[in-house]
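Margin note: ligand = iron/sulfur cluster.
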Amino acid sequence: MRTSYSALDTFKMCPKKYKFKYIDYIKEPPAVELFFGSLIHNVLRFLHSNEDRSPALNEIVDYYSKNWQPEDLFQENKEEEKYKFQEGINIITNYYKNHFPSPNKILQLENKFYLPISKEHAISGVIDRIDKISDNVIEIIDYKTNKRVPPQKFIDDNLQLSIYNLAANNLWKDVSKVKLTLHFVKPDFKVSTERTAGQLQEVKKEILNTLSQLQTSKFETRPGIYCDFCGYKNICPLFKDKDRPLESKEKITKLTDEFIELKSNEKEIKVRLEEIREKILRYLKKQSLERIYGTSGNITRKTKRIYDYNHQKIKEILEPLDKFDEVWKIDSPKLKKLLKKLPPEIQNEIEKIRSLKNELNYLIARKN
Ligand code: SF4
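Resulting structure:
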């Protein structure tokens, strides 16, 4: 399977979104931040690919202005468009003053790579920029247009940078050190990190693990704060009910509210039931009674005994009778936990031989 970092990242964030985008090929509606990020990337590529003739700042700003074609992204909101356009000018001006010309030799800009991860899987992608720092030492730079700079831990664990490191190692066998940098051009802040050979091995395993989950996924929704920015919100089964006309919603809305109300009292009801059960059981025991009567019915005391068996001994007795398979049962939750710790190929093997026994639908209620 050939995939990309963005696809893997999308799957990890929300399998449903992955399906919309990479399996059903439904185009995500254009978003301001995507348009803006892509234009800034193009401007920086234009700037550095012309480094030998030292273009003036005016020319770069001109290139930016000519390519500012947001179509109807701002929907008549001229003020917002003006603000965003100016933000781009500020970024470019700042960048030009502080980082042009480049102090290092740029080896590649927007480098397309193809990285085999195993016999069956490969990742392709594009690295914004690769610089030569010294002999056998390179720096991979990825531009970000986010406002906020994440903590160092995020950069140290960042899968995208790890994949770029693997791709660089694959491309240049004699490179001894790879510096990985995210350049946040809005606040003009660079954060760098490195990976050890051991960490890169772990990353490969992590990728294979994700790919194995992907191949057996049911592509369920995984909601989070990012849903607010998801381009598939209007077709997502979690949200499309919100837009249904009010008349057709009334009955189900009442049931929904009732369910939420009952669910929110469920805990209190359970606690109270437990308290009463204890008191009644104590009373029945003390009075040597099996049943008590209220005004609306009766309650009977029943005893259910649960035994534990020695697995090995039961096996020894039942196996010769060819009956052991009838009582032997895999503990699914434990197996699920164990699976996560097993190598991807074994996970895959086990997932391939499982069969769906039953599908249980359950409801999660959340009060506003
Ligand atoms: S709206 Fe949220 S849950 Fe639905 S597809 Fe998008 S990210 Fe997933």
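The chain has three domains: 2-229, 245-304, 307-355.
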